[in-house]
Amino acid sequence: MITVHRIIGVLVLLVMVSGCTIRYSKTGAEDSAAATGTTVSKHSTGLEIFAITVNDPTPARDLIAAVRTENNCKNLSNIEVDYRNLYIIIVGIPRVTVTGTCVK
After folding, report:
1. Phi, psi (5° rounding) for residue 94?
2. CB 36 within 8 A of CB 10
3. Residue 90 DSSP SS3
4. What's the whole-model pTM score?
5. 8 Å CB contact between 70 and 42
């Protein structure tokens, strides 16, 4: 027989197991001119437990420099920085993604 306590217990368990994602995205206005080239991207992830940082993701400015260097870009235009933080119970997983158009 289904009781109220069992239903509440299942609902609490579902809330604890489900994750939540926080997203922040920014596109550089000065880089919004149309450019021809290939789209390149790079990402970095980190780890938080009980809101204590165990490992930070690489900052966006370092990811932009790495994308330029790895792809031999003269210019990187249409840069978009996307920051997401996924929380599952006590664990947070921050992720930074940089996407841009590589002009060689």
Report:
1. -75, 145
2. no
3. coil
4. 0.69
5. yes
pLDDT tens-digit readout, 21-54? 666 666 665 544 556 889 999 999 999 998 889 9
- Give 56-87 pLDDT, tens digit per residue: 999 999 999 999 999 999 988 889 999 988 88
Q: Dihedral sign, CA of 27, 31, 33, 34?
A: negative
Report in angstroms the alpha-carbon separations of 79 from 18, 23, 33, 76, 100: 32, 17, 11, 7, 4
Report d(CA 21, CA 11) in Å as an integer.
Answer: 20
45-49: long-range pairs with CB below 8 Å, 24+? 45/93, 45/94, 45/95, 45/96, 46/93, 46/94, 46/95, 47/91, 47/92, 47/93, 48/91, 48/92, 48/93, 48/94, 49/90, 49/91, 49/92
Q: CB under 8 Å to 22, separation ≥6 — which residues?
A: 84, 85, 87
Identify the DSSP state of 56: P
